[in-house]
Specification:
Blueprint lengths: L5 E7 L1 E2 L7 E2 L4 E5 L4 E6 L5 H9 L6 E6 L2 E2 L5 H4 L3 E4 L13 H9 L12 H13 L18 H13 L5 E5 L7 H17 L4 E4 L3 H6 L3 E6 L2 E7 H5 L3 H5 L4
């Protein structure tokens, strides 16, 4: 039997404690993530999607329950410690990259993630061919801008770079936090296709929040529906294959 890569057991989170606006966001949530899972996540605003990612990422510690990574209890481990095995791509293309550094320099920075903070760009030329090939896999011309400052890239190219940086060292878990939401439809579709190809080819484990019903259905091997802090559906196999946007929307009623 495959050992889970990440487990959430009885997770509950409370905000605004001790005030009139105190509320429980996640409510006894249980989730098992296996190696190679690509899980798409949908839900209305306030369903708990971002809170779920924050608990997994260590940005928010759960008030109740446990978080296990490869069987080890990491419930009280913070965000910085979890970067050793987890990466996250946010909705905003400006996050996750250094704007004054070139595309190649950003990739070198990602390649040295987890190492001592000693940037030695004199070895950049040795990696340039590999980085250029990597950039070309995004199918958006990023490989032609390797020496361009990241702040001068288009939103789609910058988001593609963020994704490459997040996946370069093949972390155990990748959180895709609506990473195509700020892009136009064509750019979004290009990035999603490249995302899916990268996850498949490198056998990565990923969770993706999306508001696009079609993407939630098309991509991944599992689909979660969150509603009022609980997982009300965990669909895979034939159930997921039979979904339509209309059927999926029915879970929100």
């Amino acid at each position: 039997m495959t050992k889970p890569i990440l487990e959430l057991k009885g997770i509950s989170t409370i905000v605004n404690k001790g005030t009139a606006s105190q509320a429980t966001i996640l409510k006894g949530l249980n989730l098992t993530i296996n190696p190679g899972d690509f899980i798409t996540i949908v839900g209305t605003n306030g369903a708990g999607k971002s809170t779920l990612f924050n608990v997994i990422g260590g940005n928010l510690l759960a008030d109740e329950g446990k978080v296990l990574h490869n069987g080890e209890d990491i419930t009280h481990q913070g965000e910085v410690a979890r970067t050793s095995f987890l990466s996250r791509v946010f909705q905003d293309p400006k996050l996750g990259t250094a704007p004054r550094m070139s595309v190649a320099e950003n990739l070198l920075l990602a390649a040295r993630r987890g190492q001592r903070r000693r940037l030695r760009f004199r070895r950049l030329k040795e990696r340039m061919a590999d980085f250029t090939t990597l950039a070309a896999s995004m199918n958006n011309g990023l490989e032609e801008r390797m020496t361009t400052a990241t702040g001068a890239l288009s939103g789609g190219q910058r988001q593609a770079l963020s994704f490459l940086m997040a996946t370069l060292k093949r972390p155990d878990i990748i959180l895709l936090d609506e990473h195509t939401a700020a892009l136009d439809p064509h750019t979004s579709a290009t990035l999603m296709a490249a995302t899916d190809a990268k996850i498949r080819e490198d056998h990565l484990t990923a969770l993706m929040i999306t508001h696009h019903m079609e993407d939630a259905i098309k991509y991944g091997n599992r689909l979660l529906v969150l509603k009022a802090g609980r997982i009300v559906a965990d669909l895979s196999g034939a159930e997921k294959a039979a979904l339509t946007p209309e059927k999926l929307a029915g879970y929100f009623e």
